[in-house]
Each structure stands twice: as structure tokens, then as C-alpha cells.
UniProtKB/TrEMBL annotation:
Name the record gives this protein: Isocitrate/isopropylmalate dehydrogenase family protein
UniProt keywords, alphabetically: Manganese, Metal-binding, NAD, Oxidoreductase
Pfam families, alphabetized: Iso_dh
Residue numbers spanned by region Disordered: 327-351
Cofactor(s) annotated in UniProt: Mn(2+); Mg(2+)
Domain Isopropylmalate dehydrogenase-like: 4-347
Molecular function per GO: metal ion binding; oxidoreductase activity
Length: 351
């Protein structure tokens, strides 16, 4: 099969990891009779500085015809953080109905967790993050700026459609995996949105009688991701809680540089988007040492979504092989001193 993929490298280390990962994706594709055509769009904060907008007015229309999007990172130290998010990544997720965000947090063999009790293979969590609503719905306002009565409101939005979609996706995954699902909320303090969320989980659970549901408040879940990460399997959470928990998951499994994600339109009417969980990391931009593995693993999730299981497995397995090999190159986030390019070249050699 042949696929048109839009590349949005974005800001900071985004272009470094996307440029390194794409030849690896191409190699896995070619070895498995998959044809990939890429089109690169240099949208991001530099464009915002030059033109006042992160992407062109018809940017979303241009992306609509692609089979998938591979995204790098956004964020720049010279602009408030909401500008790049509101100008690029969040509109893409919303316009293309990418309600379901899948974020695996896996401790690979050969990778050291900062939690010394755990070894490769001990942690394998799959977080389902609702991806278009909650506190990220862009509902709110600010009044009386600069006065003593200044007020800011940021509302959290939960619709039945999106909540059912994320919850059902999590139950489906739990059915295929261990049959255990952890539902993370803050229902004790948010009696409208989060209790609604719990109600949806209870309703959908009736369709999955074999899945055992554990309920955790997000504060306890954050603690337990550090205290007993090996006991989690599939986790479902709102946009904000999922965003935070997956950073915790990434760090307990060794590095932000290893955490991939998939932003999926469950209706498959629009392109889905794949991106490393990490941000633009301006502190290491231009040094050539950003870890490309989260982007390569995101490419694996992309091929899996496109139905190209062989290419998906080839990418996941080659990353696992490299990490398990103590003589393989590693970037500094994993304790090595190799470059992004050396890691990507080694992956291509293994493929
Ligand atoms: N590669 C993902 C990225 O650039 N993340 C920046 C960020 O802060 N994202 C927030 C989010 O994923 O909602």
C-alpha cells in the first residue's frame, strides 16, 4: 500500500527528531512493501514570528487529504506557551476528531528506570487520554485585566460523544490486554464533569463484563505511578490528567525521549497524528543529541494505525533491540554520549 504522510517537525528539537526518524520509517516501510510519500510543512513558532500565525489559514484543509500526520514538537522560550499549542497542535487534534490519545509507557530491556526496583519488562502501561476536551476545550475568558477585580475562567468540557469514545477505546484495549482498567478522575472535587465521566465509565463497563475497573483519584494515581507502576496496565483519563500522568509514565520508564503517542480519530474519517510526547526542548536544540526513539516509536504507532502491522512491528522491535544492546549508541538522556544521527543510523543498519 502507498500512504501520503504530512510531516510537521515544528519547533526546537522537533525538526532534529523528525529528520532523523523519517529515514528509519522509510527503511522499515521499504522492507515491508509499504510505500510512503512525505510532504513537509515548516509550520511553527518561526512562522508565527514571521507572519503572526503558526500555520496558514488553509493549513487544516491542506492536512485533511493526508493518510496521517507525523508531528515533532511545539513551544518556544520567547512566546507564551499557549500560542504554539492553540495555533497548531490543539486545532489539529480538534478539527480531525482525534479524541483518542494512546500513550504507551514501557520500560524496555536495557533501560534504567530512576526507580531502581524496576527492570526492563516490569512496566508496561497504556494510557488513554481524552484529547480534545476537558480544560483544553478553549472555553473561558478573562475580564477586568489589571484591576483588583480581574477574573479568569477556564471551563472543563466533557461531551457524551468524546467521553464514550475514549472510555470505549480503553475498554477495548483492556479486553485485549490483562482485563484490568484504571479510571483516573478527580470526582471528589469536580462533581459535574468528573462524576459525569464516572457515569459513562459505569455505563460502558456493562458492555465489557470481563474487564475489572479500578477507580483512582488523580492525586493518588500520580503517587502510584511512582510507587507501583508495575501494577498498572490500561489507564483512562481526561485530557489534562492524561497529559500529566503520561509525563510521569515517561520518566519512570527511563526518559521523555522514549515516549511515543498516537492521536487517533476513532471514526477514521480524518488523518490521525503521531508525535513524541516530549516538547521542543530548546535547552538542547542544535546540539544534535535529542533522542529520536520516541519519534521512531510514534512511527510504529502510525503504521499500526494504518494497518501495516509488519512495518509497525519492525520499528518497535528494532528500537527494543537497540536499547537491549549495551554497545549500541545512546543519547545523553539515556546516559550515553551519542548523537541523534548515530542512533538513527544504527537503527537503519539493524533494519
Ligand atoms: N510533541 C508534543 C509537544 O510538542 N508537546 C508540547 C505540549 O506541551 N503539548 C501539550 C499536549 O500534548 O497537549
Amino acid at each position: 500500500m502507498s500512504y501520503d504522510i504530512a510531516l510537521l517537525p515544528g519547533d526546537g528539537i522537533g525538526p532534529t527528531v523528525v529528520d532523523a526518524a523519517v529515514p528509519v520509517l522509510d527503511a522499515a516501510a521499504a522492507a515491508n512493501d509499504v510505500d510512503v510519500e512525505t510532504t513537509r510543512y515548516d509550520w511553527g513558532t518561526q512562522r508565527y514570528f514571521d507572519t503572526g500565525a503558526m500555520m496558514p489559514e488553509d493549513g487544516l484543509d491542506r492536512l485533511a487529504s493526508f493518510d496521517a500526520i507525523l508531528f515533532g514538537a511545539v513551544g518556544h522560550p520567547d512566546v507564551p506557551d499557549h500560542i504554539p499549542l492553540d495555533g497548531l497542535i490543539l486545532p489539529i487534534r480538534k478539527r480531525f476528531d482525534q479524541t483518542v490519545c494512546r500513550r504507551p509507557a514501557v520500560l524496555f530491556d536495557g533501560v534504567r528506570s530512576p526507580l531502581r526496583a524496576y527492570e526492563g519488562g516490569d512496566i508496561d502501561i497504556l494510557v488513554f487520554r481524552e484529547n480534545t476536551e476537558g480544560e483544553y476545550a478553549d472555553v473561558g475568558g478573562r475580564e477586568h485585566r489589571g484591576f483588583a477585580n480581574e477574573v479568569a475562567v477556564q471551563s472543563a468540557v466533557y461531551t457524551r460523544r468524546s467521553t464514550e469514545r475514549i472510555v470505549r477505546a480503553a475498554f477495548e484495549a483492556a479486553t485485549e490486554r490483562s482485563g484490568h482498567l484504571t479510571n483516573v478522575t478527580k470526582s471528589n472535587a469536580q462533581a459535574h464533569g468528573m462524576v459525569f465521566w464516572d457515569d459513562i465509565v459505569a455505563e460502558v463497563s456493562e458492555e465489557y463484563p470481563d474487564v475489572d475497573v479500578e477507580r483512582l483519584l488523580v492525586d493518588a494515581a500520580s503517587m502510584d505511578f511512582v510507587r507501583r507502576p508495575d501494577e498498572f496496565d490500561v489507564v483512562v483519563a481526561s485530557n489534562l490528567f492524561g497529559d500529566i500522568l503520561t509525563d510521569v509514565g515517561a520518566i519512570v520508564t527511563g526518559s521523555m525521549g522514549l515516549a511515543p503517542s498516537a492521536n487517533i480519530d476513532p471514526g477514521n474519517d480524518h488523518p490521525s497524528m503521531f508525535e513524541p510526547v516530549h516538547g521542543s526542548a530548546f535547552d538542547i536544540m542544535g546540539e544534535g543529541v535529542a533522542n529520536p526513539l520516541a519519534t521512531v516509536l510514534s512511527g510504529s504507532l502510525m503504521f499500526d494505525h494504518l494497518g501495516e502491522e509488519a512495518a509497525a512491528s519492525a520499528l518497535w522491535d528494532v528500537v527494543a533491540d537497540q536499547l537491549a544492546d549495551e554497545n549500541a549508541p545512546r543519547t545523553p538522556d539515556l546516559g550515553g554520549d551519542s548523537t541523534t544521527e548515530a542512533v538513527a543510523t544504527d537503527l537503519r543498519g539493524r533494519l
